[in-house]
Input
Amino acid sequence: MKRDRIYLFFIFNYFAQGMSGIVYEPISYLLKDGLGLSPGQSAVFVAGMTFPFLIKPLFGIITDLLPVRGLRRRPHLALAALLWAGAWLVLATQGKVSYGILLAMLVLVHIGVAASDVICDSVMVEQGRESHKTGFYQAVQIGVLYGSLVLTGLGGGWLSAHMSYQWIFALAALLPLMILYSCVWVRETKALEAPRRSLEGLSALIAQKQFWFISLLIFLWSFSPFLGTAQFYYQSEALKLSPVFIGFLSTLAGVAGAMGAAFYGRVIGKKCSTDTLVKAAVIVFCPLSLLYVFYLGPVSVALVTIVIGFAGVVFRLALMDLAAQSCPAYAEATAFAVYMAVFNFSAWASNTAGAVLYGALLREFPAYGAVVVLTLIGSFCTLACWQLLPQALSYGVMRRSPSSAIISTI
Output
């Protein structure tokens, strides 16, 4: 890829991924009101439609081991974008959408999203590791992703209240075209020995103890059962927040997340090593995660959203940089996809468990009591990460600031 275009490639890809979130609030209302699903049933549906994020390593294996005419990135990215757009167009042509068709098409959408993300991440690892810019490139990616939430938050709330689902799906079909266009900026040379070298790199990765400790660290740190379906039902039913205000919260989270990414890439990423930031992710974020016990009304909800949104992105980037630095050569897509699949599996598992527990706890406790229990579970999981740090931060991970030697290139 041309170095003067690498940022545009990341920006186009992650803007499209982020803006696709504009449909998630309408989908939540479609499940709740249109299909009449309970919190537990909605969680099962969401788990099904987002299942492709759990098999990201499969997409990594495909792009690493199965080049098309010697090319490992561009052809696969184009196919993923076309699948993504096509599935939205099918939904846009439906009248009253059924459970089965909705689930099937959203699975295809998320296959396209997940595959595109894997390929974009592989480019990030390949390009970034050469110049020690993995942390900075990820800050650009996540900054754009969260920046797009500024639009999708209010936009999703407005669409839920004013537009039909068919038009919403049609608009969503336009976003993958940005990714399709970004393929022109990928400049590859044919990798004739890539499959053999990729297998060697993956074998070395799996044999490392550090790989398993980092994976467990990521899973526990990301496990937050209150977030997701349980949070949506608490917001809409217990707190009686409107669709527009719930969308506004997503906008706040987007602003806070974009600021967190900028802070990581421009400030703290230059001053602190990856090790230090990963330790802070446990020490600092554990008490911060308890702020959800103050999730009591519009003002407190907004404040908690801002604080958690900012800090969560900073510390997530630290964990992502640790993962990127441990990826073996020639297997970048698969290795990083494995780590990202752990993030996604944790979110998937905690969302499902949280929704089921929330529904069960409501039979014995008020809604706020259920929130407290779910919050404590998430905070305990973060605290448990402390025991994993010595092993996760050893065994030869690069010991340098992720963003040093970078800056002034954007």
